[in-house]
Write a structure and sequence with these properties.
- It is a single chain.
- It contains 14 helices and no strands.
- The protein is an all-alpha fold.
- Helix 1 crosses helix 6, helix 2 crosses helix 5 and helix 9 runs antiparallel to helix 10.
- The protein is globular, with a radius of gyration of 20 Å.
Length: 279
């Protein structure tokens, strides 16, 4: 076995062990939703909305929709293109999971995605920390902290925000790929583009704020040397490819958003000053 093959094997084995560790670690945090038939907050309409959308995604997939766009039976049968404007990747994955595992129960794919979000968040944070600081122990702890972050648990057990949890799980992996693209070279351009496109298809605000803060991080690593400009060019190319891959999703939002009717009044949105204020 060559040195490169041995290195790839060891890296793959290490990554698999970390994924298994975080997979087991995430299970106790799902205990409040352990039942497949009962739920502690049975009067919460928001949860039922997401479960209905998962079921509609499954029915859209059965119709042959790809990419997923229309909820076949929701909104009085008007075939409203909810998935064109809201988290298409999240509901595509959930719809396929329901179709394959539990055709009559959308709660099971809902819980699987929540578990997957926690595992991805921990693994992505581990990869970032291990690459930056070269400490396996510190990286494992950092991944565990990210996996059990209050943001993740509140979105999971209070707000039932499946799409926000999944985007929070994908974001550390996207940051890792972009850091490797920025620092290491062109081999990670495609991976970074795919990862950030996945984040955008999952939840747009995570893409926006994650991209801004990652760019701010890169600014702290920058200087006026020619090497820095090549690094920025690689990162910008990766972002541009990611946006092009997502154009079918965000372009209609930008063009037709004024014609859309949102159920939540504008005066219930969190003020920007509150979001930007210190904790």
């Amino acid at each position: 076995m060559s040195i490169l093959s041995l290195r790839i094997f060891r890296t793959g084995r290490s990554n698999l062990s970390i994924l298994l560790l975080y997979g087991v670690m995430a299970i106790p945090f799902l205990s409040p939703m352990s039942s497949n038939t009962l739920w502690s907050h049975t009067g919460d309409n928001e949860l039922y909305t997401y479960l209905q959308l998962i079921d509609q995604a499954k029915k859209g997939i059965e119709e042959g929709q790809f990419p997923l766009q229309v909820a076949p039976e929701r909104y009085y049968g008007w075939r409203y293109p909810i998935f064109q404007f809201y988290a298409p990747l999240t509901y595509t994955v959930a719809g396929y999971l329901q179709l394959a595992i539990s055709p009559d129960n959308p709660l099971i794919p809902f819980k699987i995605l929540m578990w997957l979000a926690m595992v991805l968040a921990g693994f992505g944070a581990y990869k970032v920390a291990h690459y930056l600081f070269r400490s396996r122990g510190a990286a494992i702890i950092g991944g565990a902290v990210c996996l059990t972050a209050p943001f993740m648990l509140v979105n999971m057990h209070v707000r039932y925000q499946m799409q926000e949890c999944l985007s929070a799980g994908l974001l550390p992996l996207a940051v890792y790929c972009l850091i490797r693209c920025f620092v290491a070279g062109r081999l990670f351009i495609v991976w970074a583009a795919l990862a950030w496109s996945a984040v955008l298809h999952t939840y747009g605000l995570t893409f926006l704020w994650g991209g801004l803060f990652t760019g701010a991080l890169f600014c702290t690593w920058s200087n006026l040397k020619i090497k820095t400009w090549f690094r920025w060019r690689r990162a910008i190319v990766a972002g541009a490819i990611g946006l092009l891959l997502s154009a079918w999703y965000f372009a209609p939002i930008a063009i037709w958003s004024k014609y859309l009717e949102f159920e939540m009044p504008k005066n219930t949105l969190t003020p920007l000053s509150f979001d930007l204020s210190p904790p």
